[in-house]
Amino acid sequence: MLAHFGAQIKVVGRQSLVIGRKEFDGITVDVPGDISSAAFFIVSALLVPNSELLIRNVGLNPTRTGIIDVLHRMGANLEIVNEQVICEEPRGDIKIQSSKIKAQKIGGEIIPRIIDEIPIIALAATQAEGITEIVGVRELRVKESDRIKTVCSELKKMGAKIAEREDGMVIEGGTKLQGARVKSYGDHRIAMMLAVAGLIADGETEIENTDCIGTSFPGFEDLLRKLS
């Protein structure tokens, strides 16, 4: 973004070299959609039978696209089309179809690229074939909620076979979820993950305290209702 505004920046490996005292140029910035927000609809389309969804103009910066890599490894029917670079930022459209997915061990170098998507990945894992192990995500304990604890506690209420670990979780897939009364703990990503869980659960799901969703995705509930 700084380079797009005219800053003199050179990146060599892990070093960024900046030449100071450069006046920025006024420009128009075309901001792509946020992949962390799109992730909830991507997983919805994967898990709800007979679904097909096209999400347009999503940011595809490689530091943010770990969820695409994880879902591909799980066997998701997911395709990136219409790729382009605008304002120095890669973006494209994401096509998703409902898919049978398989469990994976998730950890290591990919974790920084998926840390915000772990709750929705955990939900996907409840429907995957096999046992998914997520490790190296202790950082989740100091987010808007302790996301390791809240993901496990609330999905258990819906019948998920999920076990909390100090730095992650273990999830047995292939479990039919049941509607339940669950809590967001004031955490927008937990609330949105539980809303997607409600789409694939038998019976009614009621989520306490969903005002927090407006933190990152105003209009989420209306869009999800419209699509479903």
Could you describe the 3D structure shown?
This protein has helices at 35-47, 66-73, 111-114, 118-126, 147-157, 188-200, 220-227, and strands spanning 8-12, 15-19, 52-59, 77-86, 89-97, 105-106, 131-134, 161-165, 168-172, 181-183, 206-208. The model has no long low-confidence stretch (mean pLDDT 95). A hairpin with a 2-residue loop joins strand 8 and strand 9 (168-172). It has two domains: 1-29, no CATH class; 35-227, Enolpyruvate transferase domain (UDP-n-acetylglucosamine1-carboxyvinyl-transferase, Chain, Alpha-beta prism). 29% of the residues lie in helices and 26% in strands.
Q: Topology of this structure?
A:
Elements: E1 8-12, E2 15-19, H1 35-47, E3 52-59, H2 66-73, E4 77-86, E5 89-97, E6 105-106, H3 111-114, H4 118-126, E7 131-134, H5 147-157, E8 161-165, E9 168-172, E10 181-183, H6 188-200, E11 206-208, H7 220-227
Parallel strand pairs: 6-7, 10-11
Antiparallel strand pairs: 1-2, 3-5, 4-5, 7-9, 8-9
Instruction: Report the average pLDDT across residues.
Output: 95
* Count of folded domains: 2
Over the alpha carbons, how many angstroms does the gyration radius reach?
19 Å
> What composes the largest sheet?
4 strands, mixed
Q: What percentage of amino acids are in beta strands? A: 25-35%
Helix/sheet category? alpha+beta
Low-pLDDT stretches:
none
Which range best describes the helical content: under 10%, 10-25%, 25-40%, 40-55%, 55-70% or over 70%?
A: 25-40%
Helix and strand sequence: EEHEHEEEHHEHEEEHEH
- What is the general shape? globular
Tally of DSSP helical segments? 7
